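Sequence only, no structure available. Ideas?
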Amino acid sequence: MKTAIASEGKKLDSEVCPTAGRAPFYLIFENNNLIKTIKNPFAIGGGGAGNSVAQMLYNEKVNQVISGKFGEKMIEALNEKNMKYQSMFNLKVKEAMEKIK
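Reply:
I predicted one. Tokens follow.
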């Protein structure tokens, strides 16, 4: 299973980003191992980031997304793609991974 965690930075000790669509980075894990870091191209700009981010993560074959908060449109997009999502607040990326093991 692949998990993407919205992150404020590129490292495991970075904070989980409080917003999914505008997260600066996504850290992608497979079998609890970090396999890829993506700079979110939709972090800055106009509306509609949630749909675009959901598609980007779907293209990476992500099964589950972790972030602080998810917008309504991103939730719809994730549901359409049968992707799970979970809100986690005030944690570092490595702590979030521990919680979902």
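The chain has a mean pLDDT of 96.
Hope that gets you unstuck.
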